[in-house]
Design goal:
Elements: H1 2-12, H2 20-121, H3 123-127, E1 132-136, E2 139-145, H4 159-172, E3 179-186, H5 201-218, E4 226-230, H6 243-249, E5 251-258
Parallel strand pairs: 3-4
Antiparallel strand pairs: 1-2, 2-5, 3-5
Length: about 270
């Protein structure tokens, strides 16, 4: 049994000739190596962990930055879309305005051409002082002086007035169905004599306009293109303070107006 005791003693460093101090030193050295290796491994782990943490932090910052940039891009895109929508609306409005201006210009050119044609057609009457082709308040009209049409205070046409209006009607029939004619009577501000047929200048001017409308219809102007209005002394073109001004205010106007087209007709 001695060999068993010797082997057991060898395990504890106290038999088989191994000194206890040397064995302890070997254990201490081995433990020191283990601790050094563990410290090295721990250091490497900590260093690797720091690298991973730095990488994660960098990724988080990158994600945050990208998220911020994406938000800015979305905001910029939203503003751009809004600007494009506004530009589209403005373009549509501008296009509509241009189209409206084109129509107005075409109408103005047509008015100018018609004014020229009327002046040429009525040139003999203009030269005779029977009629004027004028524009007033943006409207084209024929102006006939009162003295060639009616006796003072009467709605009855003179013979010369009938002949002049018959010439006018012959031209107006050729103007076209896109026009309406407003026959407007005007007077000066001198009150009518009491006991006469008409209560005032307003009534007289309206009656004269109606008389001219009736003659125009008799001469072949379509009645649906005619209307009568009396302005009395309330639409003067000159001062009623002078005889010359009052003479200018006593007149008959035939206003050429564009025919109004209803929504159903358009």
């Amino acid at each position: 049994m001695r060999w068993q005791a010797c082997a057991l003693a060898a395990l504890w460093g106290s038999a088989c000739g191994i000194p206890k101090d040397e064995h302890q030193q070997a254990l201490d050295a081995q433990q020191a190596r283990y601790q050094a290796e563990m410290a090295k491994a721990q250091s490497e782990c900590e260093r690797e962990l720091r690298k991973k943490q730095a990488l994660v932090q960098g990724l988080e910052e990158k994600v945050e930055e990208m998220g911020g940039n994406l938000s800015q891009v979305r905001e910029a895109l939203g503003e751009r879309v809004s600007q494009l929508a506004s530009a589209k609306t403005q373009l549509a409005a501008t296009t509509a305005e241009v189209e409206q201006l084109r129509k107005l210009r075409a109408r103005a050119e047509a008015e100018k051409a018609q004014f020229k044609r009327l002046t040429e057609r009525f040139q003999s009457m203009i030269d005779a002082g029977q009629l004027e082709v004028v524009r007033r308040d943006g409207r084209m009209m024929l102006k006939l002086p009162d003295e060639i049409l009616f006796p003072s205070g009467s709605k009855r046409l003179k013979q010369g007035g009938r002949e002049a209006l018959a010439q006018v009607a012959a031209v107006l029939k050729d103007v076209g169905a896109d026009r309406e004619f407003l026959i407007a009577g005007h007077t000066d501000n001198v009150p009518l004599k009491r006991g006469g047929r008409f209560a005032d200048n307003w009534e007289l001017s309206t009656a004269r306009a109606t008389t001219v409308v009736e003659l125009m219809v008799d001469e072949g102007v379509p009645p649906e293109q005619l209307a009568a209005a009396g302005y009395g002394e309330f639409d003067p073109i000159a001062s009623n303070e002078t005889a010359e001004g009052r003479q200018q205010n006593r007149r008959l106007e035939i206003i050429l107006m564009p025919k109004i087209i209803s929504v159903e007709d358009s």
